[in-house]
Design goal:
Layout: E1 12-15, E2 18-26, E3 33-38, E4 41-45, H1 54-66, E5 74-78, E6 84-90
Parallel strand pairs: 2-4
Antiparallel strand pairs: 1-2, 2-6, 3-4, 5-6
Length: 104
């Protein structure tokens, strides 16, 4: 029996129809994009300057399009002015391939 579990917790979880997503923000990027999963976070590139939460606001706007929700359906739980963020997305209409709905 191993001394510790090497399994990394997932970067997202579902609470009913709400998706909670752990994000590693990459501001000052050339373009907006979904990156790879790194540990327990999903990389999200934002083509915005990280000043006074501006990159986070830009990222929320971008992710609203990715998940097919209005930007008001995305809440920044923590990390508005930090690259480590947690977001809650209410009833996403679309999902990136790295995220599955429960039971699928």
């Amino acid at each position: 029996m191993p001394l510790f579990d090497k399994q990394v917790p997932p970067f997202y979880r579902w609470e009913g129809d709400t998706l909670t997503l752990n994000v590693l923000g990459r501001p000052n990027s050339k373009q907006d994009a979904i990156g790879r999963v790194i540990g327990h976070q999903l990389e999200v590139y934002a083509a915005a300057v990280p000043r006074r939460g501006g990159a986070t606001a830009h990222m929320v706007q971008y992710l609203a399009g990715v998940f097919a929700v209005p930007k008001e359906a995305i809440t920044v739980v923590f990390g508005e002015k930090n690259v480590n963020k947690q977001l809650r997305i209410e009833s996403p209409g679309k999902l990136p391939s790295s995220i599955q709905r429960p039971g699928r």
